[in-house]
Amino acid sequence: MDDGFKTETFLRGPKLEDFEYLGCKVGQGTYGQVYKARRKDIPDDRSYALKEIESQGFSLSTCRETSLLRELKHPNVINLLGVILCHTDRKVLLLLDYAEYDLCQMIKFHKTSKKDKKPVKMAKGTIKSILYQILEGIQYIHSSGVLHRDLKPANILIMGEGIQRGRVKIADFGFSRLFRNPLKPLTEVDNVVVTLWYRAPELLLGDKHYTTAIDMWSVGCIFAELLTYEPIFSCRQENNRENSPYHHDQLDSIFRVMGFPLETDWEDMKEMPEYITLQEEFKPCNYSNNTLVKYMEKQNINPTSKDVAFLQKLLVMDPNKRITSEQALKDAIFQKEPFPTGDVFSGLEIPYPERKFVESDTSDRRGKKRKYSTTSGAQQSDQTQGQYGKQIRMSNPTTLSE
Ligand SMILES: Cc1ccc(-n2nc(C(C)(C)C)cc2NC(=O)NCCN2CCOCC2)cc1
User: Fold this and answer.
1) Atom 3 of ligand 1 has which residue's CA nearest to it?
2) What pLDDT digit, counting tens, does each position of 135-188 carry?
3) For the range 59-63, what are the long-range contacts, defined as Cβ-Cβ under 8 Å and sequence gap of 24 or more?
């Protein structure tokens, strides 16, 4: 991406008083509150996400996130528009794209409609367009020398009405990048459980030389879930050895669908750090009749369909044999109707509910009440109930620019 564009994005960075807060829309983020906001200084009908970083100043994680997002600029990757520092509240806020939807909530909508006997299917064109845009975003991230490592439906955002309608934005709300105590298990950070359902088998077997293939496994898991509305490798949360990458139940969930990999399927499996544990704890014969095709057939998906054929290229146990994002984007599946579109809703009405308001809690995670001072006492009390719900104003903002 040309430096000019990057500078442009930051040089004229907006200031906090340029925004009208619309309440705490996205809820308590992984490490801070997230507000939906609109600009009031210029005519601009776009919505923005103001992600409050809950720490005094720039933590290592915040530095990592801002430096990464300043470098990565692609239509299908969350866009960091600015960094705003509030002196009085000593708060750092990231100004980002605001995405009205995410795949987690969209899949839940379809799953619920099926359960309520009023099934609303996700259009084939929508599924294909979402998959294609995820692959385009991931190809860009991988070509930039970055691994996502925590791709899952909650990290796949989709823009609502506006100039970017129906565009996929890959984000990372989670913990895979947070600077954390290395002694803490990856499955838990700040007492919040990190899901393993989308984690590649080589990671579960302790592979330290993992590659971009780990993200392609996650793409396969997401694609399967778009087809069936069910997580393909779900399993209950387990307690395992401190800081161990090995998760018995998650591996069992994979083998129940895929079968147990033969030596010929995955030659390097015996080189995995946790291979001995695997041999001790699993009997391959217990999975001998399990295949991905049989699983999809049980889910009422045509086992001979091109979708299943493509899914089989993503969900390959051996990471060296798994399809890459470049190869995936050239697959025949995208050469036939319905063709992938830039607006995954392809102009149709969007059936999903908008994000609910979350009561914006002014106490921080330690329960300490935080006082928001107004930008100018005369105009605003520090919290007013407007048509968008509670609106909070911050004080003494400045914008960090390059
Ligand atoms: C420590 C650290 C944490 C996250 C990231 N990270 N990495 C990404 C890639 C480029 C890999 C998709 C995105 C983000 N951060 C966010 O998505 N942040 C935005 C999340 N927002 C989106 C808008 O709504 C509130 C949450 C990097 C480093």
Assistant:
1) 65
2) 999 999 999 999 999 999 999 999 999 999 999 999 998 755 654 454 444 555
3) 59/179, 60/179, 61/31, 61/177, 61/178, 61/179, 62/92
**Nearby residues of 190 by Cβ (< 8 Å), 6 or more positions away:** 30, 31, 175
Is the pLDDT higher at 188 or at 340? 340
Pair of tokens at residue 40: 């009031």
- Lookup: tokens for 105: 């909530």
For atom 27 of ligand 1, the residue with the nearest CA is 65
Return the residue matching tokens 């040309």. Answer: 2
**Which contacts qualify for 33-36: CB closer than 8 Å, 24 or more apart?**
33/360, 33/361, 35/360, 35/392, 36/98, 36/355, 36/388
- 11 residue type, one letter: L
Q: Which two tokens stand for residue 83?
A: 């960094």
45 annotated active-site: no
Pocket test for ligand 1, best of 69, 83, 170 (most atoms within 8 A of CB): 69
ipTM of model = 0.94
- Catalytic residue, candidates 18, 97, 102, 150: 150
Better-scored residue on pLDDT, 54 or 349: 349
Contact (Cβ atoms closer than 8 angstroms) between residue 311 and residue 292: yes
Number of Cβ within a 10 Å radius of residue 174? 19
* Cis geometry, peptide bond prior to residue 245 (ω within 30 degrees of 0): no
Write out pLDDT tens, residues 189-215.
Answer: 556 678 999 999 999 999 999 999 999
- What gap in Å lies between CA 214 and CA 196, rounded to an integer? 12
Strands 91-97 and 156-158: unpaired
Q: Under 8 Å CB-to-CB from 367, ≥6 apart: which residues?
A: none
Q: Which atom of ligand 1 is nearest to the CA of 97?
A: 23
CA atoms within 13 A on the CB side of 110: 18
Distant-in-sequence, close-in-space partners of 27: CB < 8 Å, separation ≥ 6 = 33, 34, 358
Q: How many CB atoms within 10 Å of residue 272? A: 21
